[in-house]
Specification:
The complex is a heterodimer of chains A (about 170) and B (about 100). Chain A is α/β, with parallel strands linked by helices and about 170 residues long. In chain A, about 35% of the residues lie in helices and about 15% in strands. The chains are: A alpha/beta (about 170), B alpha/beta (about 100).
Chain lengths: ~170, ~100
Amino acid sequence: MTLKGMVDRTVARALAPVPRVQRWWARRAADAEAAGPTPWAPFGRRFSECRAAVVTTGGFHLPDQPGFDCDRGDPTFREIPGDVPLADLRISHTHYDTRDARADPNILLPLDRLRELVAEGALGSVAPTHYSLMGYIPQVEALVGETAPAIVRRMGREEVDLALLTPA
Amino acid sequence: MQSVGLLQREIEAAGIPTVSISLVREVTERLAPPRALYLRWPFGHPLGEPGNVLQQRRVLWECFRDLRERPREERGRVRDLGLRWRRETYSPVDFGSLDDAAG
Protein backbone atom coordinates (compact mmCIF):
# COMPACT_ATOMS: atom_id res chain seq x y z
CA MET A 1 0.00 0.00 0.00
CA THR A 2 1.24 3.49 -0.84
CA LEU A 3 1.65 6.28 1.69
CA LYS A 4 -1.51 7.96 0.32
CA GLY A 5 -3.35 4.66 0.67
CA MET A 6 -2.26 4.40 4.29
CA VAL A 7 -3.35 7.97 4.97
CA ASP A 8 -6.74 7.40 3.26
CA ARG A 9 -7.33 4.21 5.22
CA THR A 10 -6.39 5.88 8.49
CA VAL A 11 -8.73 8.81 7.79
CA ALA A 12 -11.54 6.41 6.82
CA ARG A 13 -11.15 4.48 10.06
CA ALA A 14 -10.90 7.64 12.15
CA LEU A 15 -14.10 9.02 10.60
CA ALA A 16 -16.01 5.75 10.87
CA PRO A 17 -17.57 6.55 14.28
CA VAL A 18 -18.51 10.09 13.18
CA PRO A 19 -21.19 9.80 10.46
CA ARG A 20 -21.83 13.55 10.41
CA VAL A 21 -18.23 14.27 9.45
CA GLN A 22 -18.30 11.44 6.90
CA ARG A 23 -21.30 13.00 5.18
CA TRP A 24 -19.74 16.45 5.20
CA TRP A 25 -16.64 14.99 3.58
CA ALA A 26 -18.68 13.17 0.93
CA ARG A 27 -20.71 16.27 0.10
CA ARG A 28 -17.54 18.25 -0.44
CA ALA A 29 -16.17 15.55 -2.74
CA ALA A 30 -19.32 15.28 -4.86
CA ASP A 31 -19.73 16.92 -8.22
CA ALA A 32 -22.36 19.64 -8.18
CA GLU A 33 -23.25 19.13 -11.83
CA ALA A 34 -26.97 19.01 -12.61
CA ALA A 35 -28.21 15.52 -13.30
CA GLY A 36 -30.99 15.98 -15.88
CA PRO A 37 -34.38 14.22 -15.98
CA THR A 38 -34.67 11.01 -13.97
CA PRO A 39 -35.02 7.88 -16.15
CA TRP A 40 -37.81 5.42 -15.36
CA ALA A 41 -38.28 1.75 -16.18
CA PRO A 42 -41.60 0.48 -14.77
CA PHE A 43 -41.41 -2.60 -12.58
CA GLY A 44 -44.39 -4.89 -13.01
CA ARG A 45 -43.15 -8.42 -12.50
CA ARG A 46 -43.45 -10.94 -9.72
CA PHE A 47 -40.25 -11.20 -7.68
CA SER A 48 -40.59 -14.98 -7.76
CA GLU A 49 -40.01 -14.75 -11.53
CA CYS A 50 -37.26 -12.11 -11.43
CA ARG A 51 -33.52 -12.34 -11.82
CA ALA A 52 -31.65 -9.91 -9.57
CA ALA A 53 -28.17 -8.40 -9.91
CA VAL A 54 -26.17 -6.31 -7.46
CA VAL A 55 -23.88 -3.37 -8.23
CA THR A 56 -21.74 -2.25 -5.32
CA THR A 57 -18.98 0.29 -4.85
CA GLY A 58 -17.55 -1.66 -1.92
CA GLY A 59 -14.32 -2.48 -3.75
CA PHE A 60 -14.72 -6.28 -3.78
CA HIS A 61 -12.80 -8.49 -6.17
CA LEU A 62 -11.75 -12.10 -6.55
CA PRO A 63 -8.24 -13.07 -5.41
CA ASP A 64 -7.12 -13.50 -9.03
CA GLN A 65 -8.61 -10.20 -10.22
CA PRO A 66 -6.57 -6.98 -9.99
CA GLY A 67 -7.34 -4.65 -7.10
CA PHE A 68 -8.54 -1.07 -7.60
CA ASP A 69 -6.36 2.00 -7.99
CA CYS A 70 -7.36 3.71 -4.77
CA ASP A 71 -4.90 6.59 -5.13
CA ARG A 72 -5.99 7.95 -8.51
CA GLY A 73 -9.55 6.65 -8.38
CA ASP A 74 -10.66 3.81 -10.61
CA PRO A 75 -13.66 3.68 -13.00
CA THR A 76 -13.24 -0.03 -13.85
CA PHE A 77 -15.39 -2.84 -12.50
CA ARG A 78 -14.89 -6.47 -11.50
CA GLU A 79 -17.34 -9.21 -12.36
CA ILE A 80 -18.36 -11.21 -9.29
CA PRO A 81 -19.92 -14.62 -10.03
CA GLY A 82 -23.34 -15.10 -8.46
CA ASP A 83 -22.28 -18.40 -6.87
CA VAL A 84 -19.01 -17.17 -5.33
CA PRO A 85 -18.42 -18.05 -1.67
CA LEU A 86 -18.31 -14.57 -0.12
CA ALA A 87 -15.39 -15.60 2.08
CA ASP A 88 -13.29 -15.81 -1.09
CA LEU A 89 -13.67 -12.10 -1.87
CA ARG A 90 -11.01 -9.48 -1.28
CA ILE A 91 -11.48 -5.72 -0.85
CA SER A 92 -9.15 -3.04 -2.14
CA HIS A 93 -10.68 0.25 -1.08
CA THR A 94 -8.99 2.69 1.26
CA HIS A 95 -11.79 5.27 1.46
CA TYR A 96 -14.04 3.55 4.00
CA ASP A 97 -13.55 1.36 7.04
CA THR A 98 -13.68 -2.11 5.46
CA ARG A 99 -13.44 -4.19 8.63
CA ASP A 100 -17.17 -4.94 8.89
CA ALA A 101 -17.44 -5.56 5.12
CA ARG A 102 -14.64 -8.12 5.37
CA ALA A 103 -16.39 -9.79 8.31
CA ASP A 104 -19.65 -10.04 6.33
CA PRO A 105 -19.68 -8.90 2.68
CA ASN A 106 -23.50 -9.20 2.71
CA ILE A 107 -23.72 -5.73 4.23
CA LEU A 108 -22.74 -4.41 0.77
CA LEU A 109 -23.05 -7.39 -1.57
CA PRO A 110 -25.97 -9.41 -0.17
CA LEU A 111 -25.53 -12.56 -2.26
CA ASP A 112 -26.19 -14.92 0.66
CA ARG A 113 -29.46 -13.11 1.37
CA LEU A 114 -30.52 -13.24 -2.29
CA ARG A 115 -29.68 -16.95 -2.47
CA GLU A 116 -31.87 -17.51 0.60
CA LEU A 117 -34.75 -15.70 -1.12
CA VAL A 118 -34.35 -17.93 -4.17
CA ALA A 119 -34.35 -21.03 -1.95
CA GLU A 120 -37.53 -19.75 -0.28
CA GLY A 121 -39.20 -19.15 -3.64
CA ALA A 122 -39.44 -15.39 -3.04
CA LEU A 123 -36.99 -14.51 -5.82
CA GLY A 124 -36.65 -16.17 -9.23
CA SER A 125 -32.87 -16.29 -9.51
CA VAL A 126 -29.58 -14.62 -8.68
CA ALA A 127 -27.87 -13.28 -11.80
CA PRO A 128 -24.76 -15.16 -12.98
CA THR A 129 -22.76 -11.91 -12.66
CA HIS A 130 -22.63 -9.02 -10.20
CA TYR A 131 -20.58 -5.85 -10.41
CA SER A 132 -18.08 -4.38 -8.00
CA LEU A 133 -16.36 -1.01 -8.22
CA MET A 134 -14.59 1.22 -5.78
CA GLY A 135 -16.56 4.34 -4.92
CA TYR A 136 -13.86 6.95 -5.42
CA ILE A 137 -14.16 7.61 -9.17
CA PRO A 138 -13.17 11.09 -10.35
CA GLN A 139 -13.19 9.76 -13.94
CA VAL A 140 -16.90 10.38 -14.46
CA GLU A 141 -16.70 10.23 -18.26
CA ALA A 142 -15.17 6.76 -18.20
CA LEU A 143 -17.69 5.63 -15.60
CA VAL A 144 -20.70 6.78 -17.62
CA GLY A 145 -19.26 6.27 -21.11
CA GLU A 146 -17.51 2.91 -20.71
CA THR A 147 -18.23 1.17 -17.43
CA ALA A 148 -21.99 1.73 -17.33
CA PRO A 149 -22.59 0.55 -20.94
CA ALA A 150 -20.47 -2.56 -20.32
CA ILE A 151 -22.49 -3.41 -17.21
CA VAL A 152 -25.77 -2.75 -19.04
CA ARG A 153 -24.75 -5.00 -21.96
CA ARG A 154 -23.85 -7.82 -19.63
CA MET A 155 -27.07 -7.44 -17.63
CA GLY A 156 -29.00 -7.55 -20.89
CA ARG A 157 -27.28 -10.75 -22.03
CA GLU A 158 -27.99 -12.32 -18.67
CA GLU A 159 -31.65 -11.21 -18.76
CA VAL A 160 -31.52 -9.30 -15.48
CA ASP A 161 -34.94 -8.04 -14.34
CA LEU A 162 -33.90 -5.77 -11.48
CA ALA A 163 -30.71 -4.24 -10.13
CA LEU A 164 -29.85 -3.30 -6.55
CA LEU A 165 -27.11 -0.70 -6.08
CA THR A 166 -25.22 -0.20 -2.82
CA PRO A 167 -22.65 2.48 -1.97
CA ALA A 168 -19.70 2.08 0.33
CA MET B 1 -22.71 7.85 -3.50
CA GLN B 2 -22.16 9.76 -6.68
CA SER B 3 -20.89 6.71 -8.56
CA VAL B 4 -23.92 4.67 -7.50
CA GLY B 5 -26.32 7.39 -8.62
CA LEU B 6 -24.66 7.76 -11.99
CA LEU B 7 -24.59 4.03 -12.65
CA GLN B 8 -28.17 3.64 -11.49
CA ARG B 9 -29.42 6.26 -13.92
CA GLU B 10 -27.64 4.55 -16.82
CA ILE B 11 -28.97 1.08 -15.95
CA GLU B 12 -32.52 2.37 -15.54
CA ALA B 13 -32.26 4.32 -18.80
CA ALA B 14 -31.41 1.02 -20.51
CA GLY B 15 -34.75 -0.38 -19.32
CA ILE B 16 -33.74 -2.34 -16.23
CA PRO B 17 -35.62 -1.24 -13.05
CA THR B 18 -33.21 -0.23 -10.27
CA VAL B 19 -33.28 0.63 -6.59
CA SER B 20 -30.41 1.93 -4.48
CA ILE B 21 -29.43 2.66 -0.91
CA SER B 22 -28.18 6.14 -0.09
CA LEU B 23 -25.94 6.95 2.86
CA VAL B 24 -25.49 10.64 1.96
CA ARG B 25 -28.87 12.12 1.28
CA GLU B 26 -27.75 15.42 -0.26
CA VAL B 27 -25.51 13.78 -2.86
CA THR B 28 -28.24 11.34 -3.89
CA GLU B 29 -30.83 14.11 -4.10
CA ARG B 30 -28.61 16.01 -6.48
CA LEU B 31 -28.32 12.99 -8.78
CA ALA B 32 -32.02 12.06 -8.42
CA PRO B 33 -31.78 8.36 -9.38
CA PRO B 34 -35.20 6.75 -9.95
CA ARG B 35 -35.56 4.88 -6.63
CA ALA B 36 -33.31 5.65 -3.66
CA LEU B 37 -33.78 4.77 0.01
CA TYR B 38 -31.87 6.79 2.58
CA LEU B 39 -30.38 5.29 5.71
CA ARG B 40 -28.55 7.47 8.23
CA TRP B 41 -26.02 4.71 8.79
CA PRO B 42 -22.20 4.72 8.70
CA PHE B 43 -20.34 4.37 5.42
CA GLY B 44 -19.75 0.83 4.24
CA HIS B 45 -22.98 -0.45 5.86
CA PRO B 46 -25.85 -0.02 3.38
CA LEU B 47 -27.50 -3.27 4.55
CA GLY B 48 -26.52 -2.87 8.17
CA GLU B 49 -24.34 -4.74 10.61
CA PRO B 50 -22.26 -7.84 9.85
CA GLY B 51 -24.11 -11.02 10.72
CA ASN B 52 -27.47 -9.30 11.36
CA VAL B 53 -29.53 -11.38 8.93
CA LEU B 54 -32.92 -9.97 9.98
CA GLN B 55 -31.65 -6.43 9.47
CA GLN B 56 -30.18 -7.23 6.06
CA ARG B 57 -33.42 -8.92 4.99
CA ARG B 58 -35.43 -5.92 6.15
CA VAL B 59 -33.37 -3.57 3.98
CA LEU B 60 -33.75 -5.90 0.99
CA TRP B 61 -37.49 -6.08 1.64
CA GLU B 62 -37.68 -2.27 1.70
CA CYS B 63 -35.86 -2.19 -1.65
CA PHE B 64 -38.25 -4.73 -3.17
CA ARG B 65 -41.25 -2.91 -1.75
CA ASP B 66 -40.07 0.33 -3.29
CA LEU B 67 -39.71 -1.38 -6.66
CA ARG B 68 -43.23 -2.74 -6.31
CA GLU B 69 -44.99 0.33 -4.98
CA ARG B 70 -43.26 3.53 -6.05
CA PRO B 71 -45.27 5.36 -8.69
CA ARG B 72 -43.62 7.04 -11.64
CA GLU B 73 -44.52 10.49 -10.26
CA GLU B 74 -42.18 9.86 -7.32
CA ARG B 75 -39.14 8.98 -9.38
CA GLY B 76 -36.00 10.78 -8.29
CA ARG B 77 -37.25 11.37 -4.76
CA VAL B 78 -35.04 10.07 -1.93
CA ARG B 79 -37.18 8.17 0.60
CA ASP B 80 -35.94 8.16 4.21
CA LEU B 81 -36.44 4.70 5.72
CA GLY B 82 -36.14 6.19 9.20
CA LEU B 83 -34.26 3.20 10.63
CA ARG B 84 -31.88 4.14 13.44
CA TRP B 85 -28.37 2.72 13.62
CA ARG B 86 -28.09 -0.06 16.21
CA ARG B 87 -31.28 1.08 17.95
CA GLU B 88 -33.85 -0.99 16.07
CA THR B 89 -35.18 -4.47 16.71
CA TYR B 90 -35.77 -6.37 13.50
CA SER B 91 -38.53 -8.92 12.96
CA PRO B 92 -38.83 -11.37 10.07
CA VAL B 93 -40.33 -9.81 6.93
CA ASP B 94 -42.72 -11.48 4.49
CA PHE B 95 -41.38 -11.31 0.94
CA GLY B 96 -44.27 -13.35 -0.40
CA SER B 97 -46.72 -10.54 0.40
CA LEU B 98 -44.93 -8.31 -2.12
CA ASP B 99 -45.93 -10.65 -4.93
CA ASP B 100 -49.45 -11.03 -3.51
CA ALA B 101 -49.78 -7.26 -3.91
CA ALA B 102 -48.87 -7.69 -7.59
CA GLY B 103 -51.95 -9.91 -8.02
